[in-house]
Amino acid sequence: MDPITHGLAGAAISQLGFRRKAAFWALLISSVAPDLDYLSRIWGPDILLRYHRGITHGFLALLIIPAVIALIFGFRKGFFYYYFIAFLGYGTHILMDLTNQYGTRILSPLDWNPYSLDITFIIDPYISIGLLLCAILCIFNKKRAVVISAVTIILLLSYMGGRYYLHNKTRDFLKTRLEANTYRICPLPNAFLRWWFITRSGDEIKVGFADLFTQRVYVQETFILNEKAPLIARSKETRTVKNFLHFANFPYAEIKMEKNRRVVVWRELAYSFIPGERFVAKVVFDENDKIIKSEFRF
Prior knowledge:
- This protein is of the alpha+beta class.
- It folds into two domains: 3-162, no CATH class; 225-297, no CATH class.
- It is built from nine helices and eight strands.
- Strand 7 (280-285) and strand 8 form a beta hairpin.
- The longest helix has 33 residues, at 145-177.
- It is globular, with a radius of gyration of 22 Å.
């Protein structure tokens, strides 16, 4: 989720009977604090790709950072009160991120594998607008703010539960139509009954759309992995591709010609439905097959 949505979630939680003056700010700060790892963007987009949703989204940070926030707001009085609400805001952020396919390393630093429920897109307008309406209604009707916030949270949990159900139904449906060893179902922006899928059988990967409404499966592309090709293998030596592969669950590389130069293009197939070059790493070689440059694009 985006930082604004996380901040709105913290604001909604603050209306659930937390009366101390600083409770709102403690919840607001804790609900956006995990995204401090955005600072890694200073060293390049590929560094951000590798370290975003890493250590600051892990269980160790969940224990330590709320304690720091509690010391700031409750140094003299109320440490455990502020620790509880900071833990609540911080944990809510992590759980919200866990719902989308970007992947969250919730077990770091013990386990650096990304985990995801794959039920919401990175930016979900229904969640953002719902939380925004909650904030506006609470401002204009402070007497019923607790009820408004509680109802909003229940509705959002029901929304996510519904998407979880549809995700599993889509997976079961896809298994009846395509044979594969690995299945991945990913959400599409503003879609409920239509989902993006990636399947893998050996070196063959298929991507496309599974539609519960029409009960049809549309295979958009079929890829054959060929990562042993010399240029593709050499591209893995670059920092950009190393960081890309650290992030990607379904990476695919191909060699293209651009301005009389050979370019190895790496794509994350979980996002290949997005138009243009998004989540793409490129390594450019000269006529002597020497690496000229490498870059990554969100």
